[in-house]
Every structure is written in structure tokens, then in C-alpha cells.
Amino acid sequence: MTRILALAILSIAAYLLAQTASAAAEPLPTQRDIPAEESTVICPDEAAGRRMFEDYYTATAAGGFDIYRFFDGLKATGCEQKSGPLQIVEILGRRLIGTSGGTQLLYRATRPDGTAVIGLVDEGVNDQFPRTYFARWMQLHAPGGRLIDRQGNRLYLCPSPADAQKLIQAIVPGREPGAADPQQIKSRDRAFAAARCRIASGEYRITDVRDSQFVSLGPEAGEDWTALIAIDSDGREVGLVYDASVM
Asked: What's the alpha-carbon Rg for the chain, to the nearest Å?
């Protein structure tokens, strides 16, 4: 009887310890993947990762992330700046650096082939990293979900999304990247002349990014005409054609 009671007590104690450890575990981030295009730090092992995280992820006197200390840490620990794709499976540490250095994570992750790695990443930056073409386009051209053009020289308003798409499809592809193509430029001019779209300005909520056609005007110069689906200030769905070039 005494032995049975002792075993029961040990089982309960083990259960409580497991529960405590589980409660103390850091929660996984909102985005558990690190995309191939996203920067991260990969370390040789957990010991190197913890040393980097605890000794070299520090704040400057102004409260920002100390980038000079960071590079010293890379040399001292053997950790390297790499990129994904990775899948985070466990958070080993989470720490806010100063007042503006971001929340940094020490994590355990796996590569697509199943290889386990230890790394570090800025939680906020990784959570907000755009993972789709639409998200990347919106981050670059319409932060906050709205495209704003007050000048009225890069934006055309069309009666419907189909009209915007039709205009883009009427522009023929260029023959040679980086060189002006007279035939493509003529097709652009014809497409705009035939379309039921008019130059516009204002603010629109973008709901979808459709086809685009780049019109080369020479070395490092061009127009990136893109068909968009949007909602205007009256709540109506409209089509837009926008020059999204950033040259």
C-alpha cells in the first residue's frame, strides 16, 4: 500500500513539473515560418545561439539595436546571417531590446529537408514580412491598404475591373529588357486610346492586384502598368490602371 501511494505521489509530482515547464515555455510567434527572402541568423549550435542572444543582442544608449555589438557577436560565436525557408518549432528565448530594438527571438527550427537549426530573428519584422505577391505589392505601393495618388499622372480610373485588365492585356510585351521598343510603346498608346479609362487622382482601397505589363523606355527607365481592383470613396468597385514603377 505504501509503495502504491509513493508511486502515485511521484506520478503527480512529475505531472505538475511537466505542467510548470509547459506553462513557462515561450509561445510561438504569429508567423511560424521564415520565408526564403527573409534574413535571419543561424548558429552552429544552441550554446552559440544562447551566447549570441544573451551577450551580443544589446541596446545602444539611445535604446536602439546595437549593430556594432551584433557584428562582434557573429565573429565571436560563429553565427552567420542567412535566410529561410525555415519552420520555427520552439522558442528558446524572447527579449525586447531597449526601447526601439525590436523583440528578438532565439528559436529552434527545421529546414524543408528536416535538418534542425538554431537561429535568431526579429519577431516583428518576420511577422510583417510579406509572404504573397499581393502583400509585397501592397507594402510597396499601398501601405495601409490604400493607394493614394494626388498628382493624377500615374493613375487611370476604369468603369470596371474587366476594362482595366483588358487595357493591360492589349500592351504587347517588350522584345529586349532595358531597351525601348517602339512597337510596344505604340501598343501602349493604342491601348490607352481605345480604353474607357480616364486619368484620375484620389484615394482607393485596393482589394486585388491583377496583370501587369512593363513598358521599357530605355536603360533603367520604364513604366510598370498594373491592373487593380479597388473600392472608391463611394464604396463602388472600380478598375484601376496604375504605373507602379519605382525607378
From this structure: 27
- The whole-model pTM stands at 0.65
Q: Residue 86 in contact with residue 109, Cβ under 8 Å?
A: yes
Q: Is the pLDDT score of 194 beyond 90?
A: yes
**DSSP track, 132-194:** SHHHHHHHHH-GGGEEEESS-SSEEEESSHHHHHHHHHTSPPPSSTTS--HHHHHHHHHHHHH
> What percent of the chain is predicted at pLDDT more than 90?
74
Using DSSP's 3-state secondary structure scheme, residue 22 falls into: helix
**Stronger pLDDT, 17 or 63, i.e. the higher one:** 63
Q: Can you give the pLDDT at residue 21?
A: 44
d(CA 212, CA 204): 18
Residue pair 206/146 in contact by the 8 Å Cβ criterion: yes
Burial tier of 130 (Cβ tally within 10 Å: 0-12, 13-18, 19+):
middle
